[in-house]
């Protein structure tokens, strides 16, 4: 029998080792790395502060004034603009429009984008051409798309009217004069334009997924729905998270299509969303202080939504 | 409370940055300190125009003539927007950010806010300083830009509303070849016109509220004795105004009326029997598939029921005196008798100079094109617009929104009462504190 190995007592932690040469930093990184990081980060941070955070602070400051956009001076009026916005009957419609538009565009474009990506991830003839066709509208300017779709939805000569009349024998509503249909019109146009974005991101995610998991599930006899919901979707969760934030922020920003197609109408606020109300109050009604107030409210709403999204997603990832 | 992970923190920070980018889109210019430094070159006159009435070619022709007559000066014609509102937005951006134009097109609705906030030069004084005369401008059109004894623009693309009608449809309906003398007479004609023009088309086409219904409806309102306001006091709940709005709603309910974002195109395509629109559209009505009739706006009892409209040209107060003097010379040239004739013949806008009518080319043109002469003959029947539309910031847009609701069937009295409140609020917050008297 061999003797057990001798166990030596641990060295007493009586203090730091005797200094030898230059002491290392607490983080263990040499100064050179810190300097390099600072050199790389500072230009972007500077731009961010100058062109994003400074205007944000400026905007919040203006939201407490009665600034007429043409005026050289602005008067401090406290929270009057905020009180006015919450008491304005149109604000509720604007919020509702924003909610409907955002939920519809985020939900539909992500669902359709995923469906198309799954379809065109298969080996199909001509799939590259179709992929390009789906992505192409995304790179066209919103104003151009809005202009083109004005003709598509034209109640007198439009393509939709013609198709409905020819194949279904029904008349179409006047998309330009009925608020509900006008909102459908701008929402549809926006989805058509931006579908390529969700499609491409999902396609890239699909091509990077672990196909062996799907094959294993198939061998185990899992149904198509279970393979989709239990194998594929969890793998796409980071992509879905990324898309949900970026598509939401892009949807809330929509301006060009609404401005070209409806100018926020019909009947005043039929398709006015929060960002369009900012424009309308600032540049049409000249109430730049009030416009800044709405922009600040929008910022706070988006901040809350983003924090909630991050937390929900974080919890999902960790679980 | 759980801690945010690093990824979570970065996500929130990124979201905040994006969201703040959105939030920052409203008025990031320092409005409290900007005095419109100007920028620009003294020898180059930057002319900001939306080319009203598709007048770009005419403007370029006039500019070429000016540069020939003034070799030391150059004129840069800048596309400043597709309509008057976009030009005003661009000018507002320049007021906050600098790089002001030398001459800018300002509409009947946009000039006053700039004048009220001391952003426009007194062109009357500038003309006088440079030995230029303003006496030849049509008095009413020149007076439209007066505030506190100063003139803040020179009339340029000035228009009135005229009554356009499809003669073929009128003939088919068995109606006389003329405009009706009152809107009540039109209401009597409407069923015949509707029957003659057929389903899917309409007896009357007007702009919708997002465009210029607030302007054209003013003529209908005046013909019933109503008004948007009596000076600064809104009168949308006046019984005569309510009557006019009720008539408008009645046409819509009976399907005689269609409001449109592009009423002139719809009318030109034969979708309406009657169009109430600017004289500035006349230049575009050249190859219609039907015979065009042009008449006076219905004005029973000879009352003045036709509003003026269109735009003038203004000179910013924030540019150097040298640039202002050059700009004044250009403005005078742009609107001299000969160029007024050139411009009106290209567009259909009214001559803004009295002597322009004596120009041989103009006289011959009006004789050969009697439709163009209607606006000139109607000029004595015009009157300045109500303050609520043209002087209250956002007034025109608010009126248009209310009229859209009325056309769609909203309660007339309640809608007009709410409009009264909107206009009063805008006046009290944005105009009243700045009025000097």
Percentage of residues in strands of chain A: under 5%
User: Spans of chain B of 5+ residues with little confidence (pLDDT < 50)?
Assistant: 8-12, 15-37
> What do we call the CATH topology of the largest domain in chain B?
D-Maltodextrin-Binding Protein, domain 2
Distance from first to last alpha carbon of chain A: 50 Å
CATH architecture of the largest domain in chain B: 3-Layer(aba) Sandwich
In short:
The complex is a heterodimer of chains A (319) and B (437). Chain A has helices at residues 31-62, 80-87, 89-120, 127-135, 142-152, 159-168, 179-207, 211-219, 224-235, 237-252, 256-261, 274-284, 288-318.
Your description of this structure?
- The complex is a heterodimer of chains A (319) and B (437).
- Chain A is mainly α and 319 residues long.
- Helix content of chain A is 68%, strand content 0%.
- Chain A has a domain at 89-246: MetI-like (MetI-like fold, Orthogonal Bundle), CATH 1.10.3720.
- Chain A has helices spanning 31-62, 80-87, 89-120, 127-135, 142-152, 159-168, 179-207, 211-219, 224-235, 237-252, 256-261, 274-284, 288-318.
- In chain A, helix 1 (31-62) packs across helix 13 (288-318) and helix 10 (237-252) runs antiparallel to helix 13 (288-318).
- The longest helix of chain A has 32 residues, at 31-62.
- Chain B is an alpha/beta fold and 437 residues long.
- Chain B folds into two domains: 38-158 and 309-382, 3-Layer(aba) Sandwich (D-Maltodextrin-Binding Protein, domain 2); 160-308 and 384-434, Periplasmic binding protein-like II (D-Maltodextrin-Binding Protein, domain 2, 3-Layer(aba) Sandwich).
- Chain B contains 18 helices and 14 strands.
- In chain B, helix 2 links the parallel strand 1 and strand 2.
- In chain B, helix 5 crosses helix 12.
- The longest helix of chain B has 20 residues, at 412-431.
- Residues 8-12 and 15-37 of chain B have low confidence and may be disordered.
- At the A-B interface, helix 1, helix 10, helix 12 and helix 13 of A face helix 1, helix 3, helix 4, helix 17 and helix 18 of B.
